[in-house]
Amino acid sequence: MPNDVMIEAADLAKRYGETQALAGVDFSVPGGSILGLLGPNGAGKTTAVRILTTLARPDAGRATVAGVDVALHPAEVRRHIGVAAQDATLDGLLTGRQNLVLTGELSGMSRTASRRRAAGLLAQFELTDASDRVLKGYSGGMRRRLDLAAAMMTRPPVLFLDEPTTGLDPVSRQRVWAAVRELTADGVTVLLTTQYLDEADALADRIVVIDHGRVIANGTPQELKEASRSARLEVTLAAPYPGAAEAIGSLTAGPVRLSDDGRRLSAGVDSAPGLATSVVRALDAAGVLVDNVEVRQPSLDDVFFSLTGDHLGPEDDHPGNGAAGHEGARPEMEGAGA
Amino acid sequence: MTTTTLRRSPAGTGVPGKLSAALLGRLRNVWGMTRRNLVHISREPMQLSDVTIQPVLFTVLFVYIFGGGIPIPHGSYKDFALAGLLALNLVTSTMGTAVGLSTDLHGGIIDRFRALPMWQAAVLVGRSFADLMTSCICALIVAVTGLAVGWRPDAGVVSVIGGFALVLFFAYSLSWIAACVGLNSKSPESAASFGFIVLFPLAFVSNAMVPTQHMPGWLQAVADWNPVSAVTAGARQLWGNPNPSAAIHAWPMQHPVEAGLLWSALILAIAAPLASYFFRRRMTE
Q1: Residue A84 CB partners (closer than 8 Å, separation 6+)
Q2: A93, A94, A110 ranked by CB distance to B8: nearest
Q3: Residues A217 and A250 in one domain
């Protein structure tokens, strides 16, 4: 099964009322790999996941999971997938264990098999101590881990994780990351959406960046970084100096930005050998005292910025999306989470 | 590894015959959902107050406070009232179906169920079964409270059980109307208003708590054809309790058991397919 395409989206389009959530999206995920679906709020990530997990029907285009068409055979697709959705989709009045056993039994597993699998997952996600507590008393991190465990109950070959670490503390994030890595070691195919570039960088074999319902970049994390050639120059001066920006103007690839206190200069530069030395010499020649010079390789954040002209982050309100912070919400749910 | 687990699924090969396997799978899904809803009740017992505390309260209220002012020909008010109290409590408690379904649909949990390889309608059927079970608990509490205040049926065991079954069947059919309401409501709160706007008038404009003979003519006609009156009179007849409605010439009052069964079957035949249509529509995105 590895190397076969396990998830495929071809020209997917979906409109919710006035909002064109997806406007023709293509990507494919080979078996046993992790695809990071990246984009700002309202980009269409959740809509893509909803279509691939049979929750929404595409207006146009075709999607297959494990080779099965999601629109034509949704019931068959559901046998092959596990889903950890963005909203809390577990039952707040059941215990952690009851949630997992219910998921297993509803999926057709026997009671005994469900119980055994639930116990194993609870241990794996370090939830054994809390397993017989009602979910209402769980922290956000515990809920996300249980969500992930529920998605894995039937050992599905394809997993969809919609922003699995949003709102988690760093320790919980690391735990989720470790769990996801373990999955691919077992040959599971994962599609995860995220707003965190470091998450995509750390986990994904390939990254698809979408914005306004379209794919704007597609490649490995390394390829995306290389595509954005420019590095960033950051200089800290000992004291503000009026001619400093002009002094390094010939070395930079764009305008030099000056911080409010006049001590920090930053600019895009083309990577070149000995660039830092040239900068220090130029400033020294102008009589400027330099505290620090740094030439930073592009981060995925820079790549993303150059692609979308937008920063990532949950606090960003993306234009063109009325429901703040809740992308792809169904019309009747709009405003519920705002 | 994956396939071993999946082979156990409803369409698996464990049971001979594809149809019976699919049916078995569906039944297991329904039972799973029913159990889930029953666990909910055990977690929040106050949710059940309308089927536990309310019956006791209503029984005491009607028998001791209003009962003295309502003369019943050929019998005592408490013997008359109990069938009415059973109907009143069961009818108003069907509101729980509307609220419960609405809550499920407005939470994220419905998305989990929808992405599982399960019979989706089990969400609906499991809810109605769980509510039928709480209705049975309600009926038991009404019976015990009734016996405590001096209600005595005057009929055979089978006939008495038949009286309870008649009202329970009616409440079950009503719960499918409640399901339609829950499936179309904007919020659990608006689903709850269904109880006050529809269920209370339905329960009270009937012979449940007072004989209809004292109502104004037009209202009496409504009350005598109200299905609640039919099942209440039917239960009184089956329990051998005073049933003043037997003197009324309207067909349902002359044949209350048949009328009660017909009403329930009719409501079920219309509301259940309608609910399943609304459910499917809600599940389409």
Answers
A1: A144, A147, A148, A150, A151, A159, A160, A161, A162, A164
A2: A110
A3: no
